[in-house]
Design brief:
This protein has 525 residues and is of the alpha/beta class. The chain has 21 helices and 17 strands. Helix 6 packs parallel to helix 7, helix 11 packs parallel to helix 12 and helix 14 packs parallel to helix 15. The longest helix is centred in the first third of the chain and has 14 residues.
Length: 525
């Protein structure tokens, strides 16, 4: 199961909460000590470069959004972006890779000052530099509708980090999701950003991946994590943390009470870092998602990490892909989960590890205790093709046969798995319910395949997806059926004789034959 995207935790509310209005009782307040004031070395700038106001302010308030943007482009001397004009009334604005530059960004910022519809703005890879960041920050002092901002891959460097840090210290905007990946941030930038983030409670989701933070940066980030009370999802992947940085980060994580999703993949934690992470998992019962893929963790490190899994009561996803872990390390991980009756583990990714049939048998015993658990491994040594095929029997077809025998719509089978017969369900709960139900016996391989077909977004299955791509037909009303239309049947397009536009939309009106378009891949063997 892929939880990435973000991120984010089990539900959108966990990682993407709506911000409380200014002055609301629900607003989070920082109880950490105020950080030292950052020394400011402001270079002299032409006032017109830093100010988003145009001389005739009254004209701006009476001019439409399109005219306002065109006037701003004329003022700063850039060609207007037609995509921005066409979509400025939408909530999502994607201007990635548009070559805006600092002045093009300034024109966008001027137009955004009074925009009340755009809530997410993407400006990745536009070479906006520090001048562009300054324009955006000026805009954010006035615009309280924008909530998500992506300014990754823009060569912001130290000066850009300084401008962003001053903005974050104010806690004055509605931005809760900030993406700063790939901006050539080094240790000095880490110092400024972490100083500001230590007292910031507005940012809930932060991406600092693909930067140049090393162990000293890890120390700054560790101190920040020990104080920050806002961040719930943090991406630090593809940096340069090694043992010292790993230990510092883990020191901060021990006392952090808000972080739920952490991506540390593609760093250099090694076995000592794995030991420190194991201690974090033993003490921290807030983390839900932890990715340490590609961190040079061996079986020895996996064994050290597993000590924390024996006590942890919150972690649901642990990714260890692309680490040199052998079968012994894999055993230590699943046995640690088995020894923890309160484990919430749902996904363990060791998908580069080749296991044995003995491992799968022990894993079956672990899953009997924790039916919500799924372990991704590379393959099973010596498993015959015939046996492997039997493990992947067509699950959906089995469920459809059961539904037909019991004269019920297919979707009703899935709805019965939920307490309130809902059409959606968290993946972990769905996996547990499918393993525990006895109407259609399935194994964990079949459930994994079923989740792939039903997963609407990371962490959530949608039972409506069981209809996608197939022709679902109802027979004429037959005696004894509790509803008009008879039982549901699923037919391939070629079997029903329907093709293209001949396939009707789903219809619940009482007629002799109803058809719905659904997905052939859903029932493929």
């Amino acid at each position: 199961m892929d939880y990435d995207e973000e991120a984010e935790s089990q539900t959108k509310e966990e990682t993407e909460p709506a911000l409380a209005p200014q002055g609301s009782d629900d607003t989070l307040y920082c109880e950490a000590e105020a950080p030292l004031v950052v020394e400011k070395e402001k270079a002299a700038r032409d006032s017109s470069d830093a100010d988003l106001e145009i001389e005739d302010n009254e004209k701006f308030y009476t001019t439409g959004q399109k005219e306002l943007y065109l006037e701003a482009c004329k003022l700063v001397g850039v060609v207007p972006v037609s995509y921005f004009i066409r979509n400025m009334e939408d909530s999502y604005m994607n201007l990635n890779h548009h070559g805006l530059g600092p002045m093009g960004t300034k024109a966008i910022a001027i137009a955004m000052v009074s925009n009340t519809t755009i809530t997410k703005l993407e400006l990745e890879d536009n070479y906006i530099q520090e001048e562009g960041v300054l324009s955006l920050v000026e805009m954010l002092h006035e615009n309280y509708y924008l909530q998500e901002l992506n300014i990754s891959d823009n060569e912001l460097g130290f000066e850009g980090a300084r401008i962003i840090s001053e903005f974050l210290q104010r806690n004055s905007s509605s931005i809760w999701n900030l993406e700063l990946s790939g901006n050539n941030f080094k240790e000095e930038a880490a110092a400024l950003l972490c100083q500001a983030l230590s007292s910031n409670y507005q940012i809930k989701k932060l991406d600092l991946s693909h930067n140049r933070f090393s162990d000293t940066g890890g120390e700054y980030l560790g101190q920040m994590l020990g104080l920050n009370v806002g961040i719930r999802a943090l991406d630090l992947s593809w940096n340069h943390f090694h043992t010292r940085g790993a230990l510092a980060l883990c020191n901060g994580l021990r006392s952090n009470v808000t972080l739920k999703k952490l991506d540390l993949s593609m760093n250099g934690f090694g076995n000592e870092g794995a030991l420190a992470l194991g201690e974090v998992l033993r003490l921290n019962n807030r983390l839900i998602y932890l990715d340490v893929s590609g961190n040079d963790i061996t079986s020895e490190g996996a064994s050290k990490l597993s000590r924390g899994l024996e006590y942890n009561e919150s972690l649901q996803v642990l990714k260890l892909f692309l680490n040199p872990i052998s079968l012994d390390g894999a055993f230590s991980l699943i046995l640690a989960i088995k020894r923890n009756p309160k484990s919430k583990m749902e996904d363990l990714d060791i998908s580069n590890v080749l296991v044995t049939e003995q491992f799968t048998k022990i894993l079956d015993s672990v899953c009997a205790i924790h039916p919500q658990l799924d372990v991704m491994y590379k393959d099973v040594q010596g498993l015959s093709a015939k046996k492997a095929a039997s493990e992947w029997m067509n699950t959906m077809k089995m469920i459809q046969n059961y539904a037909d025998q019991n004269k019920m719509p297919l979707v009703d089978f899935f709805k019965l798995l939920t307490p309130n017969e809902a059409l959606q369900m968290p993946v972990g709960e769905f996996r547990k319910a499918m393993i525990q139900q006895t109407k259609v016996p399935v194994n964990r391989y079949q459930v994994r395949d079923l989740i792939k077909r039903l997963e609407e977004r990371p962490g959530l299955v949608n039972f409506r997806c069981s209809y996608q791509g197939w022709e679902v037909t109802r027979k004429p009303t037959e005696p004894g059926f509790p509803h008009e239309g008879g039982p549901t049947q699923l037919l391939r397009s070629e079997d029903s004789g329907l093709h293209g536009e001949d396939t009707a939309s789903f219809c619940l009106s009482p007629s002799s034959f109803h058809k719905v378009k659904a997905s052939p891949a859903l029932f493929s063997a």
